[in-house]
Amino acid sequence: MPKVSVNLCCYNSEPYLEETLASVFGQSFQDFELVIVNDGSKDQTDAIIRRHMDAGRPVIYHAQANAGLGAARNKALELSSGELIAIIDHDDVWEHDKLAKIIPLFDRPQVAFAGSDAVFIDSQGRRLSRYSDGIVLSRGRILKDLFLQNFVPCAAAVMRRSAIAQAGGFFRPDFHIAEEYELFLRLAEKGEFDFIPEPLVRIRVHAASAGWDFRKERLELKLIYSECLRRNPDLVASIGPRLVAVKEAGLWVGPELAQAFCGKGPASLRLKALGLCALACFPGLADTLRDLKRRLFRLAAAR
Question: Could you give phi then psi for residue 206, rounded to 5 degrees?
Fold first, then answer.
């Protein structure tokens, strides 16, 4: 039984899959199996995977009709036998010592999941920015901070299998965008999070990621937040009713901005908090602004 089961879900992954696979097989930590679920790809994804299987790589492979990312992640988890579950997406890249540096964090039995910092890269692999430039990572019992803003890069995440079971098991198959975040919140309710502060993952930004459905994401987030508040009613008292209203609208709020909802911090942040309260009343406008922000980021990446 391997120490780690690496879960890789693929859909039309041909352009970047070879580099992703090379970064997994090139890990300095080698006690792992790679569980690949091909979720109905129509390109050469299957041929690439089978070529690595023929070369004797430690691959467990399952091809299925397209069922969505949540269902694909659940199938990969079902086929896994490792004590720890690591996620990598089909266009992202791990650094050589990613697993070797994160695995020791689980020597502490209270750690339910762990991760690292990351960098964004463009389609050519050129570095764009660091993940932590615009987000704050924290460790320990992080439920409140994680509820306010997801700071766990999916491709950096490693989870204790027993903690997943304790948190209810599996990803939500009805979610297609925020399925990993929903599970991370449930894990944060059960145990601690830890991380390596250096970037051990490269997250690719490219043309195929253009069609992000912000309305669908916001609807999933609204459901995630309402369910989390129902399971953890003390969160309401902890963050206050104004911030609860903003979160129930499906909006992100960084920890430094969260203080402004309580009237703390500089006037500029308090003004921004008021703006978010107003924006929560017009969710369609919020979707448009987030879409514009992402498109500008992608435009900068394409230059």
Answer: -150, 175
Instruction: Name the amino acid, one letter, at 232.
Output: N
Q: Where are the alpha helices (DSSP H) in 154-282?
A: 161-166, 179-190, 214-231, 234-239, 241-248, 255-258, 267-279
User: Tell me, what amino acid is at 249?
Assistant: A
Evaluate whether 37 touches 65 at the Cβ level (below 8 Å): no
Q: What is the pLDDT of residue 284?
A: 67
pLDDT band at 302 (very low <50, low <70, confident <90, very high): low
What does DSSP assign to residue 140? Answer: B
Residues with Cβ within 8 Å of 98's Cβ and at least 6 positions away in sequence, in order, are: 27, 116, 156, 200, 201
Q: How far apart are CA 279 and CA 240, in angstroms?
A: 17
Model confidence pLDDT, tens digit, residues 245-282: 887 777 777 767 777 777 777 888 888 888 888 877 77
| Per-residue buried b or exposed e for 157-193, using 16+ beta carbons within 10 Å of the residue's own CB | bbbbbebbeebeebbbbebebbbbbbbbbbbbbbbbb
pTM of the model: 0.86
Using alpha carbons, select from 142, 155, 185 the residue that is nearest to residue 73.
Answer: 155
